[in-house]
Design brief:
Low-confidence stretches: none
Structural class: alpha+beta
Strand content: 25-35%
Oligomer: single chain
Strand order of the largest sheet: 5-12-11-8
Largest sheet: 4 strands, mixed
Length: about 200
């Protein structure tokens, strides 16, 4: 069936839009059957309609794709959780990159408490200033707030020419003053170490 884009008036023999019921030039009523436009005109009309529909389809598809894109902030790792941390449920390490659509059947284990403060101790007593002699060794300890059992510490001397420390055991090397550092989960505790000459 041809697309009626124009019709020819039977009275004045002029062409006008096929959507009009009367000729705009002479006012004659169009025959119900009308006169069809040329096939070339019909082909143009079909091409224009096809292009318009294609553009609308592409636009609707693009809108759907843009609205369904995942939010990059939502898919990022939460603060304090890094890849490679075991979830303890299946023995597999790593954090899944795909979002979960259903809730986990079992509750996740509670996270380890975060260390706020590290305090250096000597024989169970808190100290931030102590004295040792050259070639003398004493064993230092530490406490954390909140208290964490089996916490591991990294010890460091600010000047190893004055004293050295290995696993909390300080040994005087030469007279002077330096600082002892104790790190637990990246949180430092510190104390002054004074090394005196042997009498």
């Amino acid at each position: 069936m041809a697309v009626i884009s124009e019709v020819k008036c039977g009275r004045c023999d002029r062409r006008y839009s096929g959507f009009r019921s009367r000729c705009p030039y002479c006012g004659a009523r169009r025959n119900k059957r009308g006169k069809h436009a040329d096939e070339a005109d019909n082909a143009k009309a079909k091409l224009i309609i096809g292009v318009v529909l294609l553009v609308l389809l592409i636009g609707a598809t693009m809108v759907l794709l843009i609205t369904n894109l995942p939010d990059p902030e939502a898919s990022a790792s939460p603060t304090g959780v890094s890849p490679g941390v075991s979830d303890g449920s299946d023995g597999v390490t790593g954090v899944s990159s795909s979002p979960s659509l259903s809730p986990s059947p079992s509750p996740s284990p509670s996270p380890s408490p975060v260390v706020d403060v590290v305090v250096i101790t000597y024989q169970g007593t808190t100290t931030n200033d102590f004295t040792i002699g050259v070639n003398e060794s004493i064993q230092m300890g530490f406490k954390t707030q909140p208290a964490i059992e089996d916490a591991e510490a990294t010890w460091e001397s600010s000047d190893e020419d004055i004293f050295q420390v290995v696993d909390g055991k300080c040994t005087g090397i030469s007279p002077g003053t330096a600082t002892l550092y104790c790190y637990v989960d990246g949180i430092p505790g510190e104390s002054i170490v004074r090394v005196t000459a042997a009498e």
